[in-house]
Amino acid sequence: MQLRAGTTQDTSSIRALLAAEDLPTADLSRSSPQFIVAFDDANTIVAAGALETHGDSALLRSVVVARAVRGTGLGQRVVQELERIARIAQVKQLALLTQSARQFFERQGYRVIARQAAPEVLQQTEEFRSLCPVSAICMAKFLAEA
Fold it and tell me: Which residues pair with 94 in a beta bridge?
């Protein structure tokens, strides 16, 4: 599997992958997150993840791996690439909301925080305000200097 930046041509494939896992897609055109996609030998997108950057904070969102390739380390590779991009952009803190992937993100070094402890600019995103339920777990990770 290879990784690359997502393009506008990937939009429908990314949306389908997210929808299959009940992840939010309603704000993708408005928030314009920066996607990374993983694709197989047939050039089919099998994983994705995105950054929605706001100054020195970013929302890690839409991390999804097709069921057929879960457990292969692909999700971890996507997150590591997004973190690398965030460091280049001088992002200091990543935050995310999850309902089902707490353990996955804990293994990547993210820690549970109170939703109100996330950077204010991220709390104003549509994902925080309306797309993810209040029952979603908020997690964060401070990035080391590159």
Answer: 58, 141
Q: What are the structural domains, with CATH classification, of the chain?
A: 2-142 (3.40.630.30)
Q: What is the pLDDT of residues 73-123, one digit of tens each?
A: 889 999 999 999 999 999 999 999 998 889 999 999 999 999 899 988 888
What strands, in cross-sheet order, belong to the sheet with 34-39? 2-5, 34-39, 45-54, 57-65, 93-98, 137-142, 111-113
Convert the chain into a string of H (helix), E (strand) and C (coil).
CEEEECCHHHHHHHHHHHHHCCCCCCCHHHHCCEEEEEECCCCCEEEEEEEEEECCEEEEEEEEECHHHCCCCHHHHHHHHHHHHHHHCCCCEEEEEECCCHHHHHHCCCEEECHHHCCHHHHCCHHHHHHCCCCCEEEEEECCCC
